[in-house]
Design brief:
The mean pLDDT is 95. By secondary structure, this protein is mostly helical. It is built from seven helices and no strands. 72% of the residues lie in helices and 0% in strands. Helix 3 packs antiparallel against helix 6. The structure holds fe (ii) ion (2 copies).
């Protein structure tokens, strides 16, 4: 976040502590899902380049972010291989789909909402990756997850900075609104061995 912007606390809720028990009970499933989360993060970032090529600041920021996400894909893929886990197809993501439903159709609101939804997904991912880092007993995997959690916090802030630059007067209220929606959604979804 920019120094002149008071911090916004995202996500707006903490994950149910029972989630980590569910995740640890089937870590392989979490890693398989995580591979696709990283891939989709890269694709979502690049989708903004497709939609807003004239926004030079945005293109530079999200293209760099996508570059990091593809590096994360490599890291998680190597983790799966190291553990002898066979990857699966993407099982779908009702969490992200429900958040995307919140995106307004007309510009310029559409861009603001896309940036804020991406910030929220980064924020929740960062929270959960940090929970995994604290709970996983294998040192190499825990270190990997700690590094990924730090990167996703940075990505959250990149999207928030872009949102602030896009809609200086309204981004914060809209962010708070969407953060509440995200917290309600997380509380409603079943606990499962996935990132979301
Ligand atoms: Fe990532
Ligand atoms: Fe990210």
């Amino acid at each position: 976040m920019r120094a002149d912007e008071p911090t916004l606390s995202l996500p707006a809720s903490t994950t149910d502590p029972r989630w980590i028990e569910v995740a640890l009970a089937d870590l392989d499933a979490v890693h398989r899902d995580h591979l696709h989360c990283e891939r989709k993060a890269a694709q979502s970032a690049l989708s903004l380049v497709r939609s807003y090529p004239e926004r030079t600041d945005l293109v530079a920021a999200v293209a760099r972010l996508a570059h990091e996400e593809t590096a994360h894909v490599v890291q998680v893929s190597q983790l799966l291989a190291r553990r002898g886990v066979t990857p699966t197809w993407d099982l779908g993501d009702d969490y992200a789909a429900a958040l995307r439903d919140q995106i307004r159709r007309r510009e310029p609101e559409r861009l603001l909402d896309r940036l804020l939804v991406f910030a929220l997904i980064e924020a929740r991912s960062a929270e959960r990756l940090a929970l995994l880092a604290d709970a996983i007993t294998d040192d190499a995997t825990a270190t990997l997850y700690r590094g990924l959690a730090t990167a996703e916090v940075r990505h959250r802030d990149t999207f928030l900075e872009l949102a602030a630059a896009t809609a200086p007067a309204t981004w914060r209220d809209r962010a708070a609104e969407l953060a509440t929606v995200e917290a309600d959604l997380v509380a409603r979804l079943p606990l499962r061995p996935r990132i979301h």
